[in-house]
Amino acid sequence: MSKRFSYLSHLECSVCQQRYDADQLQTISPCCSRPLLARYDLAALAQDVQRDEISTREASMWRYHELLPVREAGHIYSLGEGMTPLLSAPRLAPEGIEAPARVLIKDEGQNPTGSFKARGMAAAVSRATELGAQGLVTPTAGNAGAAMAAYAARANRPSYVTAPQDAPPTCLAQTRLYGAEVELTPGLISDAGQIANNVARQRGWFNVATLREPYRIEGKKTMGLELAEQLDWRLPEAIIYPAGGGTGIVGMWKAFQELRELGWLNDNRLPRLILVQAEGCAPLVQAFHAGKTEAEPWPAQEAHTRAAGLRVPSAIGDRLILQAVRESEGTALSVSDETMLQTARYAARREGMLISFEAAAALAAYHILLRQQYLKPNDEVVVYFTGSGLPDIQSYV
Ligand SMILES: *Cc1c(COP(=O)(O)O)cnc(C)c1O
Predict the structure, then answer these.
(1) pLDDT at residue 1, rounded to an integer
(2) Do 253 and 308 reside in the same domain of the chain?
(3) pLDDT tens digits along 195-206
(4) Are strands 36-40 and 206-207 parallel, antiparallel or unpaired?
(5) Boundary of a domain, candidates 157, 175, 207
(6) Residues in Cβ contact with 315 at an 8 Å cutoff, skipping those fewer than 6 apart
(7) What is the largest CA-CA distance in the chain?
(8) Are residues 219 and 290 in the same domain?
(9) How far is ligand 1, taken at its centre, from the CA of residue 309, in Å?
(10) Which atom of ligand 1 is found nearest the CA of 142?
């Protein structure tokens, strides 16, 4: 058989592994009401494609098109997302560390819409449009709505975004500018989720809410694929990632499994995943330390943090997230808003990097884990700077 553009084979329920058709628009699994995961024909792919061919391709996440769900090149709506730099940044270690720290930054703020959300939405909007979606809907804490609106504009589809009324004004302005209809709710992201469901049903548009459709995570998976490629097909000792809905963590873990199954890794050791949340909203951290397989929702009226992307009181992917962190022998911790603020200033001053509150949480976690000697300066650690600090700049100065 000739080479395929995508080796997507089917969708699978993340709880009971029931199979579903990948070539129809799907939401959560009808069997367990949990996320569906995309599965690929990895055996055929390993036969057809040489790993080293990847590095000759265009510098965007679509260089991994065989491991992405879009069936035809002409159905991709791209703004050049992905292939963000992996930067060495020893001066981001705390002051007073003797040995040069082996800390690397994956700078997701350089994505088209200012955060890694561009990856997920490029994949989800392209695939939904390929499968016939006439319009797109999403609830958002801020960045996801902006990213969806951008790709919907690119795909020439109308879009609707609903957000908590205290979502970052810059993200909302960006979303409106791309042409989306924006509706605010006095509640949290979970309330916005309900509204998005209703609007999608009424209008017959497709809802791309986190893990309620199977393809945003596929786009986010490319953060893990690129990391392996940029490290010459091996992985670091630890990854630090700020988690809200958790698709970044789940997506990267899925990437590593797929790379291992393809035989593309020179060394099969996988990194420890370190999950970071805000002290004011840390349901996953709490569940991790309580040894639970699912997270209790964080009480809505108590969910406070300026890291909008982390203000997620309950994540539908909780089982997958906790499972990934445990399988990786990683850990979870939370950081205060005040520490995020100080750490964002530190990153700007020390290495010229302008980072969001969420990204600052990840860097702060690195400092804490060095102090606790959970990590050593010579451990190779990759910190994900998930978003640019430009929208938050008024809070920093
Ligand atoms: C959404 C978001 C997060 C949280 O990511 P998840 O993959 O949903 O856990 C972190 N940082 C930024 C900047 C975000 O926009």
Answers:
(1) 62
(2) yes
(3) 999 999 999 999
(4) unpaired
(5) 207
(6) 210, 211, 243, 244, 245, 246, 283, 284, 295, 321
(7) 60
(8) yes
(9) 5
(10) 15
Residues with CB under 6 A from ligand 1: 115, 117, 143, 210, 242-248, 309, 356, 358, 386-387
Given a cut of 80, whether residue 82 has pLDDT beyond it is yes
State mean pLDDT over 31-40: 96
Q: Whose alpha carbon is nearest atom 3 of ligand 1? A: 309
Give the domain-ending residue among 207, 235, 256. 207
194 and 124, same structural domain?
A: yes
Question: Does residue 384 sit in the same domain as residue 324?
Answer: yes
Nearest CA to ligand 1 atom 13: 387
CA of 273 relative to ligand 1 center, distance in Å? 15
Cα(251)–Cα(384) distance, rounded to whole angstroms? 13
254 within a domain of the structure (yes/no): yes
Domains held by the chain: number: 3
With 90 as the cut, is the pLDDT of residue 332 above it?
yes
Spatial distance between the Cα atoms of 194 and 314, rounded to a whole number of angstroms: 13
In this structure, the answer to whether residues 26 and 109 fall within a common structural domain is no
For residue 99, pLDDT beyond 80: no
Check which CATH number belongs to the domain holding 252 and give it: 3.40.50.1100
Ligand 1 center to residue 4 CA distance, Å? 32
Q: What is the pLDDT of residues 204-239, one digit of tens each?
A: 999 999 989 999 999 999 999 999 999 999 999 999
247 C-alpha to ligand 1 centroid (Å): 8
Best residue among 106, 116, 253, 276 to mutate for probing ligand 1's pocket (most ligand atoms within 8 Å of CB) is 116
Domain that holds residue 342: 86-115+214-396
Is residue 2 domain-resident?
A: no
Shared-domain flag, residues 320 and 369: yes
Kindly tell me the burial class for residue 365, based on how many C-beta atoms sit within 10 Å of its own C-beta (0-12, 13-18, 19 or more): buried
What is the reported pLDDT for 187?
Answer: 84
Instruction: Classify residue 80: in a domain, yes or no.
Output: no
Q: Whose CA is nearest to atom 2 of ligand 1?
A: 309
Query: How many Å lie between the centroid of ligand 1 and the Cα of residue 392?
Result: 15
Taking residues 249-259, report their average pLDDT: 97
Residues 35 and 151 in one domain: no
User: CA triplet 325, 282, 85: central angle to 5 degrees?
Assistant: 60
| Whether residues 162 and 244 fall in one domain | no
Distance (angstroms) between ligand 1 centre and the Cα of 359 equals 9
- Ligand 1 pocket test: which of 105, 108, 115, 305 has the largest number of ligand atoms within 8 Å of its C-beta? 115
Are the beta carbons of 164 and 184 closer than 8 angstroms? Answer: yes
